[in-house]
Input
Amino acid sequence: MTRILYIDDEMALLTLTQIYLREEAGLDVDIADSAEEGLNKLKNEPFDAIISDYDMPGIDGIELLKLVRAEKPSIPFIIFTGKGREEVVIEALNNGADFYLQKGGDPKPLFTELAHAVQHLVRRSKAEDDAIRNEKYLESARLRIFEQLQLIEDSTTALDELYDEENKAEDHLNKIRNGTEIIRNCLERRQRKPGE
Output
C-alpha cells in the first residue's frame, strides 16, 4: 500500500484529509502537525510521497521542501495550501515541488484531485526508480560479459600457441574468436548513444 506523509498545522484538515485519502483512495496516510514532526518521521519511516501545507509556523512548506530535497531528492512532494499567490506557486515548483494544489472550494473534487496527483506521482517515481535500477543492472551485466569475453580471448590465444600445428584446433579457435567478436560488437553498439 502506498504510504503518504501529510504535514499541516491545521489538525481538523489533517484528520479530514487522512480519512478521505485512506477510505476513498486506499492510501496509508500518516500525519504530522509541524514540519519538525514531519522531518522526524521521515528520518525513521519510509514514505512514498509527501503532502505539505505552505503556511506553517517555524519551518514553512518551501523550507521543508528544501530540507527534504537535500535528503530525499526523488520523493514526490505536493504543496497543498490555502495560499494561492503566484509567487508561492513559482517558488514551490522552482524548489522541486512535483505538484501544487490550492485548498478551498468543494472538498470532494479537491480531495479526489489530491488523491489522483499522489497516485500519479508515486507511479511515476516508482517507474523512474525501476528504470534506474534496470540501467544499473544492465551496465553491471555488460561489464561482466566484457570481462568474460576477455578471459575467453586470452584462453584462445594461449590455446592457439599450444596447438599451433593442429588445423582442427585452429578452426575451433577461430569460431570462438568470431563468436566473441560478434558479442563484443553487439555490446559496444548497444552502449553507444544514437547519433554517436
Remarks:
- The two ends are 43 Å apart (CA to CA).
- DSSP finds six helices and five strands in the chain.
- The chain has a mean pLDDT of 85.
